[in-house]
Design a protein that fits this description.
The chain has one domain. The model has no long low-confidence stretch (mean pLDDT 84). The chain is mainly α. The chain has 12 helices and no strands.
C-alpha cells in the first residue's frame, strides 16, 4: 500500500527556494509563538501588561519635559503630549521589531536545533507580538485624542488616518527586514548584537520622533526624508494631528527601501538558516 505523506522535507537549492505555502501551514505555530513571546515578556512582573500603558506615558512625559520645555522644540502648534505620544508609539513598535528579530537565531538556537519548522516563523511571530503591544498603545493614544477633543483643544484628525494599517504594515516589514539582516550577520559577528541597541537609539534621533520635520531646513529636508522611518512618522502625525504634510515622493522612496530591505533580509535569512547551527 502506497503511503501518502503530508509533509516532505527536502534541502533548499538556492536563495529563492522559499516555500510560502509551507510557511502558511505553520500559522498555528506562529500564534503559539506569539502567545509564548507575550507571556514570557511579562512573566514574573508585578504590573504585567500594564507596563504597555505606563511606559509610553512616562516616556511621553519625559519628552515633554526635556524636549518640549527645556529644549523648547516646536510641536507645530499641537498639544505636546499628543505630539510626543504619536511619535513614541510608532517608534516603540519599530524598535521592538528590530531589536527582537535581530536576536532570532541566538535566542531560538535551542528550538531550532531540535525540531524542524520554517525558521521565518520566529521573526514573524515577533513582529505580531509587537503588533499586540502597538494596538494597546494606540488605544491609549486614541483616548488622549478624545480627551483633547472633549476639552475643546483643536486636534485635526484627517481622512488620511485610514492609511494607518498601511503604515503599520510598512513599519513591520521594515523592522523585520532590518532585524533579520542583523540576525543573519550576528551568527558569525556577535559584535553586531552590542551595536544594534546603540544604532537603533541613533536612528531614533535621526527620525522625527521628538521633533517635527519643520525643524529641518528646507534645503536638507528631502535628504532627511530618505530615512525610511521619517515619512511614516510624518504621515501618521498629519493623519491624526493635522500637523505637517504628506511627503508623497519620500514615502514612495521609503516603500522601495522597505521592499528592498525585506527581500534582502529574507534571502539572507534563508541562506544563513542552512548552516547557522554550526556557528551559533
Amino acid at each position: 500500500m502506497e503511503e501518502k505523506w503530508t509533509t516532505v522535507l527536502k534541502p533548499k537549492h538556492n536563495l529563492w527556494d522559499i516555500n510560502l505555502k509551507e510557511l502558511f501551514s505553520y500559522k498555528d505555530l506562529i500564534f503559539l509563538f506569539v502567545k509564548r513571546n507575550f507571556v514570557t515578556k511579562y512573566k514574573q512582573t508585578i504590573l504585567g501588561p500594564l507596563w504597555l500603558i505606563i511606559s509610553p506615558i512616562l516616556t511621553t512625559l519625559m519628552y515633554v519635559l526635556v524636549f518640549g520645555n527645556i529644549a523648547g522644540l516646536s510641536t507645530d502648534g499641537t498639544p505636546q503630549i499628543a505630539f510626543y505620544m504619536s511619535g513614541n508609539i510608532i517608534w516603540t513598535y519599530f524598535a521592538y521589531c528590530v531589536n527582537q528579530t535581530s536576536n532570532t537565531f541566538v535566542s531560538n538556537a535551542g528550538v531550532f536545533g531540535k525540531v524542524y519548522f520554517p525558521r521565518l516563523v520566529a521573526p514573524i511571530s515577533t513582529v505580531l507580538t509587537g503588533l499586540l503591544d502597538l494596538g494597546i498603545q494606540f488605544c491609549l493614544f486614541a483616548v488622549i485624542l478624545l480627551i483633547y477633543a472633549l476639552t475643546g483643544t483643536p486636534i485635526g484628525i484627517t481622512p488620511w488616518a485610514l492609511l494607518t494599517p498601511v503604515l503599520v504594515i510598512q513599519l513591520a516589514m521594515l523592522g523585520m527586514g532590518v532585524g533579520i539582516i542583523v540576525s543573519s550577520l550576528t551568527t558569525k559577528y556577535r559584535d553586531l548584537t552590542i551595536l544594534v541597541a546603540f544604532g537603533v537609539q541613533l536612528w531614533m534621533y535621526a527620525s522625527p520622533i521628538v521633533y517635527s520635520v519643520s525643524q529641518i531646513p528646507e534645503r536638507y529636508r528631502f535628504i532627511y526624508l530618505l530615512n525610511p522611518v521619517a515619512p511614516i512618522v510624518t504621515i501618521f502625525r498629519y493623519a491624526f494631528l493635522g500637523t505637517g504634510y504628506i511627503p508623497f515622493a519620500s514615502w514612495g522612496i521609503s516603500w522601495i527601501t522597505t521592499v528592498v530591505v525585506m527581500v534582502i533580509g529574507v534571502l539572507l535569512f534563508s541562506k544563513i538558516e542552512k548552516t547557522f547551527m554550526d556557528t551559533v
